[in-house]
Amino acid sequence: MMRIDCKHVWNYVSAYIDGEVDAELRAEIDRHLETCEICSAVLDSTRNVVVLVADGRVFELPTGFSKRLHARLDREMELARS
Amino acid sequence: MTAPNPEFEADCIRRILAGERHLFHALISPCERAIYFMLLSLLRNEAEAEDAAQDTAIKVYLNLKNFRGDSQFRTWVLSIARNEGLGRLRKAGTRREDSLDAETDEQTGDYTPAILTCWREVPSEALERQELGAMLRKAIDGLPEIYRNVVLLRDIEEMDVRETAAALGITEGAVKVRLHRARALLQRELAPRLEGFAPKKKGLFGWFK
Q1: A81 chain-B contacts, CB cut-off 8 A
Q2: In terms of CB atoms within 10 Å, which of A31, A55, B31, B93 comes out highest?
Q3: Measuring CA to CA, how many Å separate A41 from each of A28, A61, B61, B191?
Q4: What are the pLDDT digits (tens) for B78-110?
Q5: Chain-chain contact of B54 with A13 (C-beta, under 8 angstroms)
């Protein structure tokens, strides 16, 4: 059986995290991960980074953004009408 | 992110065009975050991104009758936001080099991640420390624009590949390639520095690092 190398795994890290690799490749990667601590750590750290940046606390709208937007919309909608 | 609701949107649009203008607030609200962060990604200035977001919302309102419903409403809104941002960059003559090669990045390049032999999970609770959020924002801000906007829409606004591609006017393949590279760049930049945010392991004799 052909064994995939680390570099090959790195190319699929993102697709693997998103569940976008086919079953055969996923099985190959999983077999590789069982014995490769580096690729396991690369995968885990990448997934960890993705989860952290997606947290709503990282990117927040400026305070009062929504209020200012809707106030401006009200003014413009009034103008567009007249 | 609020999940789009096509029936609600279609109903809203019909009624707004029939004169119930106030419904526009409810229609645009779920898109606010995505509009703002798309523009922040392009303009990299909070005050200008906010001003451009307001102009975008007004353009959406004024052009609502032109929405055909053959794409998702939010996708249409984001393409208006993107045009607004690009227009402002053109006007200011500040379009950066990194965005000019937007269509020439389809080939897969070699990428070496930050090499680690073990990874201690940094839990989301660690975000209560302000410096972690600041570190993540800085890393994303440091990405080339073509990668930054894909990360913002896919990983932060949690839009799917199809919608991201439509909003950015690129292919779905390009979205995947760029997202892969963006995440790889973020892992390389952040992994070595995140270590300090992982909980300390509990050893036999109490806590040790």
Answers
A1: 21
A2: B31
A3: 17, 33, 48, 10
A4: 999 999 999 999 998 876 555 444 444 544 555
A5: no
